[in-house]
Each structure stands twice: as C-alpha cells, then as structure tokens.
Amino acid sequence: MPCLPSIPLRRLAIATVVAGSAGCYDEGLIIQDLVGTVVIPKDAATMDFTREVTDDNGDPVLDPATGDPQEEVVTVTDVRLIGPVFIGLYASVRDDLFSYPYPETGPVSGAAQELGVGDAYPYGGTTLGDFRYACFEFFQCQMVSGRYESFESIISWWRDTVGVPLVDASGEEITSADAFVQTCYQLRRWTSEEEIQLTPTSDRNGDDVIDAGDLDFVEDGDNFVGEFVIPEAEFFEDMTAWAFMERPGPTNLTTGPLSYNTCNPTLGYQEFTYNQNWRAGTQFQDVLNRPAAYTETGDYVSSTGFTWADDPFEPAEIVLDFEVE
Amino acid sequence: MRFDSSTPRLLGLAGALAALAIGAGCDTNQNRVFPGLIEGVPPVMDLGSIVPVEVTTRDALAESVIYGEVGPTGTTEDGGVTFNFEGTNGAVCVWIDPETVFWNQSVSPTNASPYYRVPDNPYDDGDLDVDVGQALYYTGTPGESVGTFEVRYEDSNGNVAPIQLSECFGPDPLFAGAQSIGKAGRASPEYCTINNTVAGVEYTVVMRTWSTPIDDDRLGFGMLLMQGSCASLLADSFGEGSSGGAPGPGSTSTMPAREYECVITGEAIEPGKPGGANAAAAGLPERTWLGSEVPFWARSVAFERAFCRREADNDGPGIIEFCREERQTVAANNEQCSWAFDASDPESDAVKCFCGDLDDTPEGGSF
User: Does A119 touch chain B (CB under 8 A)?
Assistant: First the structure.
C-alpha cells in the first residue's frame, strides 16, 4: 500500500490510546437496576363478598319470613385481590399534602390546578402487576397480571368468589380452561400459554413446580411479599421509592365489579374481530405523576417509602402500611 | 500537475481563502434573513392591564374588541403583544384573530370542496399564537421582549426539571378551526379559556408573532377579553353567518370552522392611519383602536363575512361570489391586484385584493 505514510507502530498505539481516552467522558450518571420488595398486609387483600346461601343440592335457601333467597357475607383474603402496585422514584415523601403520605409535588398551577393535584415529577418507576389483554371483553380493566395461578383459577374465582361467571362475546359462560385458552389462540394466533401472559409459565422461585409460588406476590406470614426490579434507573442520593396499591372496590365500577381507576378502558390492545370491538384497557399514562388523581378510600400506600442514602445496590423494602381513608 | 516557484504562494492563498470561507460560515447571525423593523409599528407591544368585559350581545362584542398592529423585530427574536388581567374567580376567555383570512385551495379531482375552490391571497396573512399564564411565571418583559411560562422546577433533592405553567391547555371544546392551544395556523382565530381564574391574581396573555404578512409586514389583529368561556361566543350565534345551533360549553361543535373567523372582524388594518381616540382614552398604547373606530381596509370585513357565510344563507355573497366580483371589478377598472406587493406603498399602483388570481389557478385534479 504505497499511499499510506510510514507511521511507527508505537506512535500509532499511543495515539489510539490518547484518542480513546479522550472519548471517555464521565457524565456523572449512576444507572443501576434497582431491586427490592413490596410488602402488603393481608388486610389490603381482603374483601367482603355477598353470596346467596345454597343447600347441599346447590339450590338457594329461602328466607322463611320473606321468601327471598338468603344471603351471607363472606370475607375473602386472596392474592387475586391485590390490584396493580405502582412503584415510583421520587425526591421525597411528605405527610402534609394529603390525608395520606404522598410524594412531594411541583407547583399546583396550569394543568395541575385544573387536575387539582401537582405533578410529582418521578425519576422513574415500575409496576408489580399491570393490566392485561385477557381475550374476553368481560375482563376489560379487570385483569391484573401475576395474580392467577392457572386458567382454572381465573374461571373459578369469578364464578365462585366474585359471583359473576366469565362469559364470551355471545354471552355464553366459559367453564373450562381449554375454552379460555383456545379463545386466546383463535383471536391472537397465539400458540402457547407463554404468549398469553396471564399465568406463571416459569419456575420463578426455583422449587421445580410452577404454581402460586411463582406469582408476583406470595404469602409471608401476615403479609404478601413481591419482588421488583426497576431496570436501568437513574440513581440520585436520598431519593425515595414510594408505592401504592389500588384495591378493586365498589366505587370503581367503571367497567366491571373488580375494575380499577388507574385503568383507561379506551386504551390498550383493540380487539376488532367479527362481532367484537373493544379495548383491553391499560394504565393511564400519568399514574406515577399524579397518584392522587387515582387513589381512593381503601387503597394502600407506603407511609415512608424507602430512601437510598448513597448505595444504589441496597435492596429496597417498601411497606404498604397505610390505608387511604 | 506541474509545480513551479509560485505554487507555495498559490497554495497559501487558497488556504487563506478556505479559512475565510469557514470563518464566514461560523457567523450564525441570521438577522439578515428576517424582515426589518418598520418605523412607527412596534415589534413588541404591551396593552397594560385590561378588565374582562361582559358580553351579552353581538354589538357589545364588536365594541369591546381591541385592535392593534405589530411589526417584525428585525432580528431573530420573537415579537408580539402582551397584556395583564386580574382573575375574576370564574372563567375568562381570550379570543384573538390575526389578519386576515387564509385557506388552502381545494384542487381535488373528486369530492372537491366547492367552498374552497377559489384561491386565497396568501400574501396578506399573518399569525399570532396565544398563551396565558399567571404573571408571576411569565419570563418576558412587557413592551420589551416576549417570553414564555416555562420555569425551572427544583425538587428537594436539587434536581431540576423545566416545566410549563401555561393556563392554555386541555381539549378543544369547540372545533379544530379555532384552537385553544395557540396553534391554529395562519390568519386563523385562536382562543384560550382559563376556567378557574383566582380573584386577585394577575394573569399575563402573550400573543407571539409567528409570522407577519409577506406584502407589508404589518400584522393587524383583533383581541377580545371577556368573562366566561369562549364556547359561549358561538353558543349565542355571535359568529356572523351562523344560523344558530352552536354548541354549549364542553360540547363538540360541528359548525364549519370558517365561521370562527367572524367572531372578530376588521383586523386587517389599513396602514398609516392614526391610533384610535377611544383606545387612547382607555389608556391603550399607540397603534391600537377600540371597537368600531378601527380603520380596516375597505372591503376586508365584507371579505371576512363572505368567508363565514353558509352556502344556504341568502344574506349576501359567499366567498366564491366575492372573489369573482373582486376579479371583475379589478378587470373592469384595468387595475392590478396587490399580490406580493404592498398595496399601501404610495409608489405601488396595485389595489388591495383579498382573493388569489382566478385567472391563474388550477382546476380540480390539475396536480
């Protein structure tokens, strides 16, 4: 190659090192996968359900005085009653903004004034459980991921506990897991339960069994505990991870008996097939910016959150110990 | 190539020229490509403090409109108009209308809009963008420079985020023809409803000059500051040409967007006219007029009303008829239209034409 000038290899190496090091600019950013656990007391996953009393044959028991079917109130504690848990990274948590602990917010002006709550300007965040497309309009804004062990448990939960059996687009009751799964396969051209993403399909806890122990939350004494990861978060000293859980309740009857304020039924995947035209629903985009716009009585928040001093590797523990009243 | 004794000198000269060229390329002052200052027409105007009026009739609306005229800054800096008002504990509407009327000609071979088949004169239109916020957050200096409502928010950890504290936001309760977020486009009316003003709190309205008319760089405008929601303007059929049935607050209008042009008319101001006496008495600055004293260009109001008029209305010609009449009049008088020329220039023999050239316009499907 006669066109190349003759440069001694040692000089070339030195020049390469100098040029390379000049490109190493330290931006002063700490980007870290933040890990931790969310602890939810069982009270937060407890609800009362009213059922008709039935006899051994399954027939309703009538009130002797009125002739009406008798009802009973059953208190249920179940991981399926844990709504989506929103975890945000904030500058701090304050006690003087609302009747419950809440992240510090920016000025209440402009759009914030119209909404009635300032923007908390989160640094980042994630969720433990989010709203999922679940193949039936029946589940619009009511299906939270990481809560159901199996398709059978979905069907039985709605039929036997909630008291509202799952029905398809024609109003026919879905009674078998196969019918559920086949509906998903048909609508989305899916070929495996991994693609449906409603039930655990991997051995998360390493006990060689795929079961309730592989859900987002598992029982631990008087609590449910779930592990979270906020991937590649920007770390600031003294920032606080704060979380809240929306509990399904009678005031959230936007689309169904166990729906959520944080879910927008006009967004999410749109099913537009034959006689179906509906959206699955998904989180409002500003839930972490303005949690107060969505929290209601009965929801649970963390009273202190978890504050990192200077070690981004320190696992966080966020306890949802404060019930919003 | 053959080298001789002059080669090093030539190379040096070439190098110097290259350096000069590169150096010249680093000059980022682009003021020269912006229109220059116009004597007697302020680039930045402050109207002072204005009280929102209560409008119940079309006549009251017309007499409450403040008209003005602004020009270019002569630099890359933005110009515009500002004023303040005090919160009323209720809704306040700011409605602005920059000079004059603009539309895109419809040339579709199929389903062409018959209403827009005629061409507009695009040289006489400018654009103002409206924004409103608490005066506390306004970053400009009234009468000197135009600012925004963007401030730096610093949280308790010392992290800073730029945030926008404008009060102009939210969905448009009317129709896209006039937008509430200050981006309606050339010559189109814009409005902003501040739903819950706080009594005693000062608000600043800024009307940023996005563009001035190409022909004379004098941008006339009309502005109405009124109590209540802007939606009520058309709910009471204040838009001329409207035959009623306008929406109430919060509803979606199906009214043709062009009718918003006639909430305020007369904003095409003839250059060189003295400021209004009523405006001066009201404490407004030079180059402003109040209500009917505005010296609008002859036929400009008729032009706006023709634009707003529905085809079914029988109270005057629509825009197609207006443009044909204008063309016939110019031809009969053997005159020349003012397209791209300043019709107010004493040396110009062009007459003010509000429509485009009907003799040089494509038929439907020509493209």
Answer: yes
* Most A-contacting residue of B138, B148, B150, B155 (CB-CB within 10 A), to test interface: B155
Compare CB distances from B165 to A107, A238, A239 and report the shortest one's residue: A107
Question: Does the structure show a pLDDT above 50 at A266?
Answer: yes
- Taking an 8 Å cut-off on Cβ atoms, the answer to whether B137 and A109 are in contact is yes
Rounded to 10 degrees, the C-alpha dihedral A50/A55/A60/A64 comes to -100
**How many Cβ pairs closer than 8 A exist between chain A and B?**
47
User: Average model confidence (pLDDT) for chain B?
Assistant: 82
Residue B17: strand, helix, or coil: helix
Select the residue of A110, A236, A239 nearest B166 (Cβ to Cβ).
Answer: A110
- The answer as to whether B118 is a domain residue is yes
Say what the pLDDT of residue B266 is. Answer: 96
Residue B317 inside a domain? The answer is no
Q: How many angstroms separate the CA atoms of B348 and B358, rounded?
A: 21
Alpha carbons A323 and B7: distance in angstroms, whole number: 87
Residue matched to tokens 């009747």:
A99
Q: Is the ipTM of this complex over 0.85?
A: no
Q: What are the residue ranges spanned by the domains of chain A?
A: 30-48+70-323
List the domain range (segments joined by +) for residue B198.
31-297
User: How many structural domains compose chain B?
Assistant: 1
How far is the C-alpha of A37 from the C-alpha of A225, rounded, in Å?
Answer: 7
> What pLDDT digit, counting tens, does each position of A128-179 carry?
999 999 999 999 999 999 999 999 999 999 999 998 999 999 999 999 999 9
Each residue's pLDDT tens digit, B167-187: 887 555 444 444 455 567 889
C-alpha span between B104 and B361 (Å, rounded):
12
Q: Is A94 on the interface with B (CB under 8 A)?
A: no
Q: How near does any CA of chain B get to the CA of A222, in Å?
A: 35
Which band of pLDDT confidence, cut at 50, 70 and 90, is reported for residue B315?
low
- Which tens digit of pLDDT belongs to each residue from B205-262? 999 999 999 999 999 999 999 999 887 776 655 544 443 333 333 334 444 556 788 8
CB contact under 8 A, B163 and A104: no
Which of B101, B65, B102, B96 shows the shortest CA–CA distance to B82? B96
Instruction: Give the percent of chain A with pLDDT over 90.
Output: 73
Report d(CA B75, CA B32) in Å as an integer.
8
Instruction: Give B26→chain A minimum CA distance, Å.
Output: 25
Is B274 part of a structural domain of the chain?
A: yes
Residue B356 included in any domain: no
Residues A190, A193, A199, A205: is their CA dihedral positive or negative?
negative
What's the confidence (pLDDT) of residue A51?
83
Tokens of A50: 């009213």
Q: B262: buried, middle or exposed (CB in 10 Å: 19+, 13-18, 0-12)?
A: buried
